[in-house]
């Protein structure tokens, strides 16, 4: 036989054998033998007002320091003078007369030729859109024998007028005035100008500007593009308002839900605890107006089909800061806050707090099922206080599931102490936090394999893979999270809730990174991490299925990680596979079932060999999921898994 012919045949046989060998590595999915129920709350959202996520972000208000309640009451406002001798601008503090909103501004003009302008800079500017309508409002009072005109203008980034209107203020009684106008230009750095002209004194408060195109077009509502990104995650739950923000640097600055409901003008403005938390990202203008308060959180949960999961202060400030605690004999108001919150969410309109909910526009209960006691607390001082909450809540509302905590780290002495203590209590869910490197996430796909199935259930509430030094939301971080999440799903009998954190970040106002969704004043971008969360969220399923290679779960063998579920609602098998290899992997999947399946299925793939790639506002599609069609041969699928990829497969029963 010719030598060259022999060589050619040999090469061909080698490649055929290699291919057959790879495809012969069959991944087995036991479709007819579900091993556990998957909670509809499995994948959800964790929200905290960090990185300007609320004011300047999700809450669509464009005016910063609208009620002059910042430490510097003029912060965010520039005074433009035409004749300094003919006007006065003052801030009045009413103190105990109106403790929720003590300050208001006044302009005094001495003659008809005088004028004064106030210009508000917004949150790193105001993002406005051409042909969009904007709604301006102001609380104002005109002193006797005064004649003052107010002109309202929207200025672009170079000072040109791109929208204007006028407000006619009349009478001494405080009154809300509302006008609307259309913007003639798109600009991410617009400003709002108030021009006062005339003679006399006018006092004003709650200066506000909202776009017309809010989520569901609600007056004074939320930024539509950001809410849509939340809805597109298909979240099972919505945890709010944090996060460390619940605790406060000290107890005087803790989050108090009762101060965030009722009339907007009666909600107490408070400094945000991330204001100066990080010296390298100081934000002295970071406050909380609470226009996005507990009522709005509940309403948002309802809008996006997520179970509301509020977290309350347990009588402890942040242990990384002051570690301040309230004495046990003074804990009762904190416990009562929890009971009153349940009444606010679920109580009838005949109750005090249920009536307030109805008065705010929602007579129907929100049907809250969960409440969290404390955030990231640790040590005996936490469990001493937790016991009071558990006793009171279980006695009055035994149907409510309580969420407890194990502290800020996934493994340390405090974590181990918490695990020991929690066996004594009736916590339905226990949260665990993991901010770790990509390697940690790959290595911990088996974290819950050996957890006690007879004990409490896990709330994987805060996780994010940190790929230092930049902590960018790159594909490596997202891929490692995907591998870890297959382990969460594979242990769905003990893991009931999971969420990435933090959720939002303003590109010019962030304090912490990485984050799931980045935005500026006009646009937003989904990170690779977002797409991973979304692919798990929209492919949740109802029943857990075994998926194995050579009789073992896929937890990193040969660089593969996998989980599988059955979706009883759509009659589909759903398979998620992570390939953490720089080469493509060819394998086959066998669906072990008496069921018959369609000859075609769908496959969604996200991946790239450039592990450092990430999406930006300028280039939002650097890495995005791609949908493909796949064919079945009976109950077998042949797969070519892309390098460094997450693949989600759906196969429908005939």
Automatic annotation (TrEMBL):
EC number: 3.2.1.55
Keywords for this protein: Glycoprotein, Hydrolase, Signal
Residue ranges of every copy of the Alpha-L-arabinofuranosidase C-terminal domain listed in the record: 462-645
A single GO BP: L-arabinose metabolic process
SMART domains assigned to the protein according to its UniProt record, in alphabetical order: Alpha-L-AF_C
Keyword Hydrolase: yes
Catalytic activity: Hydrolysis of terminal non-reducing alpha-L-arabinofuranoside residues in alpha-L-arabinosides
Gene Ontology molecular-function annotations: alpha-L-arabinofuranosidase activity
Family classification: Belongs to the glycosyl hydrolase 51 family.
PANTHER family associated with the record: ALPHA-L-ARABINOFURANOSIDASE 1
Protein name: non-reducing end alpha-L-arabinofuranosidase
Taxonomic source organism: Plebeiibacterium sediminum
Taxonomic path: Bacteria, Pseudomonadati, Bacteroidota, Bacteroidia, Marinilabiliales
């Amino acid at each position: 036989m010719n030598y060259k012919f022999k060589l050619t045949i040999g090469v061909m046989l080698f490649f055929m054998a290699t291919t057959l060998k790879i495809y012969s590595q069959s991944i087995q999915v036991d479709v007819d033998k579900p091993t556990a129920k998957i909670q509809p709350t499995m994948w959800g959202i964790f929200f905290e007002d960090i990185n300007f996520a609320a004011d300047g972000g999700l809450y669509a208000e464009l005016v910063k320091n609208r009620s002059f309640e910042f430490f510097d009451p003029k912060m965010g406002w520039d005074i433009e003078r035409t004749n300094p001798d003919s006007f006065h601008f003052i801030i009045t503090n009413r103190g105990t007369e109106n403790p929720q909103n003590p300050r208001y501004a006044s302009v005094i003009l001495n003659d008809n030729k005088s004028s004064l302008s106030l210009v508000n800079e917004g949150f790193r500017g105001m993002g406005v859109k051409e042909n969009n309508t904007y709604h301006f409002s102001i609380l104002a009072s005109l002193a006797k024998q005064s004649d003052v005109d107010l002109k309202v203008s929207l200025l672009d980034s170079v000072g040109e007028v791109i929208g204007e209107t006028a407000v006619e203020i009349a009478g001494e009684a405080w009154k809300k005035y509302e006008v609307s106008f259309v913007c003639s230009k798109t600009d991410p750095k617009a400003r709002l100008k108030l021009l006062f002209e005339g003679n006399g004194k006018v006092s004003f408060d709650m200066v506000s500007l909202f776009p017309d195109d809010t989520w569901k077009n609600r007056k004074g509502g939320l930024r539509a593009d950001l809410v849509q990104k939340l809805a597109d995650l298909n979240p099972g739950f919505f945890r709010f308002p944090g996060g460390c923000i619940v605790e406060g640097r000290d107890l005087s600055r803790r989050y108090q839900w009762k101060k965030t409901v009722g009339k907007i003008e009666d909600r107490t403005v408070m400094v945000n605890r991330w204001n100066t938390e990080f010296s390298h990202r100081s934000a002295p203008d970071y406050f909380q107006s609470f226009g996005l308060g507990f009522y709005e959180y509940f309403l948002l949960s309802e809008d996006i089909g997520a179970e509301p999961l509020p977290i309350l202060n347990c009588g402890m400030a942040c242990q990384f800061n002051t570690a301040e605690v309230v004495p046990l004999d003074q804990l009762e108001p904190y416990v009562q806050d929890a009971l009153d919150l349940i009444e606010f969410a679920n109580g009838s309109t005949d109750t005090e707090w249920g009536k307030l909910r109805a008065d705010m526009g929602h007579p129907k209960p929100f049907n809250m099922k969960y409440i969290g006691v404390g955030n990231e607390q640790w040590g005996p001082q936490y469990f001493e206080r937790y016991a009071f909450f558990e006793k009171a809540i279980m006695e009055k509302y035994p149907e409510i599931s309580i969420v407890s905590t194990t502290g800020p780290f996934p493994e340390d002495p405090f974590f181990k102490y918490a695990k020991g203590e929690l066996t004594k209590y009736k916590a339905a869910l226990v949260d665990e936090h993991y901010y770790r490197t990509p390697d940690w996430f790959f290595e911990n796909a088996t974290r819950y394999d050996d957890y006690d199935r007879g004990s409490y259930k896990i709330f994987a509430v805060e996780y994010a893979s940190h790929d230092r030094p930049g902590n960018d939301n790159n594909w490596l971080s997202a891929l490692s999270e995907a591998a870890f999440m297959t382990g969460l799903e594979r242990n769905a009998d003990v893991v009931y809730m999971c969420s990435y954190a933090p959720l939002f970040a303003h590109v010019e106002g962030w304090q912490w990174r990485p984050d799931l969704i980045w935005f500026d004043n006009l646009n937003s971008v989904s990170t690779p991490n977002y797409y991973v969360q979304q692919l798990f969220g929209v492919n949740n399923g109802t029943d857990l299925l075994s998926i194995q290679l050579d009789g073992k779960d896929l937890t990193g063998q040969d660089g593969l990680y996998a989980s599988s579920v059955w979706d009883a609602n759509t009659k589909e098998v759903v398979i998620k596979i992570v390939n953490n290899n720089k080469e493509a992997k060819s394998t086959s999947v066998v669906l072990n079932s008496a069921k018959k399946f369609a000859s075609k299925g769908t496959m969604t793939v996200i991946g790239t060999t450039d592990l450092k790639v990430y999406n930006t506002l300028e280039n939002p599609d650097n890495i995005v999921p791609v949908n493909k069609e796949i064919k079945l041969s009976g109950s077998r699928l042949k797969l070519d898994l892309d390098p460094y990829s997450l693949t989600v497969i759906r196969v429908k029963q005939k």
